[in-house]
Amino acid sequence: MLPVFLGEPVSPQMLAATLAELDETLQLLEDKFLQNKAFLIGSHISLADLVAITELMHPVGAGCQVFEGRPKLAAWRQRVEAAVGEDLFQEAHKVILKVKDSPPADPTIKQKLMPGLLAMIR
Question: What residue ranges carry the coiled-coil annotation (predicted)?
Fold first, then answer.
């Protein structure tokens, strides 16, 4: 999200490493936590599901299709959205899903935040 917010390019090496780590994390989420359950800790939605879906919506907001090619994870997302309610789910993620279409941060804010943020993504 930071490169999108700042309007800064990411090195191909950093992007590849980040996407590989994301893929490993998604696999772990499916295999160890979701398994064959409807939700992360059982048959009913929990705080764990809400926290996890919020985290996964960040890369979605940056343009990464984390649910593509992962039918188990995509079905879980649909169950979470249905349990929360489609309107509330969309409202909760409205800002994050629009980030990739927003202009970069104001130059003054960007200048103040840039040193610390760049250190985090390098």
Answer: none
CB 109 within 8 Å of CB 9 = no
d(CA 53, CA 109): 29
Write down the pLDDT at residue 33.
Answer: 94
As a whole number of angstroms, the distance between CA 54 and CA 94 comes to 11
Residue type at 7? G
pTM over 0.85, yes/no = no
One-letter amino acid of 52? A
Angle at 100 between CA 122 and CA 105, to 5 degrees: 65
pLDDT beyond 90 at 11? no
